[in-house]
Known about the structure:
CATH class: Alpha Beta
CATH topology: TIM Barrel
Strand order of the largest sheet: 1-2-3-4-5-6-8-7
Amino acid sequence: xxxxxxSLWRFADRCGPWAxxxxxxxxxxxxxxxxxxxxxxxxxxxxxxxxxxTAPDMWGNAQESLAFGVIALPExxxxxxxxxxxxxxxSEDCDxxxxxxxxxxxxxxxxxxxxxxxxxxxxxxxRRQKHLHLGRVNSRRRVERARQLGCQSCDGTFLAFGPRVxxxxxxxxxWAKLGTATARRHYARTVDARHGLSRQGRIDARRSRRARxxxxxxx
Length: 219
């Protein structure tokens, strides 16, 4: 997961599929659309590897979050990136602009993400052929929930806090197998702003300290 606050975009041409998160959802007053757009232009040459870029959102407030995100959606689409709309608690009662985003990004609280309301919301997204992504996935239980909801991707920070235990192929590999029986491959890539690449040019998760990791289940 690339973010404007780090230097991981420098590896966008060498890693597998990646996504972009604005990383200000808990501090929405820090979001600057002009700065975000200017930063995204840096990775335009490799947008064919991009799964999505997120519109801005606000933690825990569906209506305000939607109003915040909708303002940015047209500008993000102009850069020809697939755009993700993050949703928060109560978004099932909102009139989502289905026609102008590509990915439904499931945020919000854990109780809400486990609710029937989210199941109905994700079912509607799949009916409309939207990509589904679940954020903050750091356990087998969360991977299983992503599978239940029909998500094609998810992200979390577990590699950053235990790379030697969780990577490669231990927990992450087991979780990927749990995620879907029809997965063709599993990718979990993370880099550190200073030491992100090994001598072979591969992403070295063992050197990562704080990156969020994107997991994909392409079918």
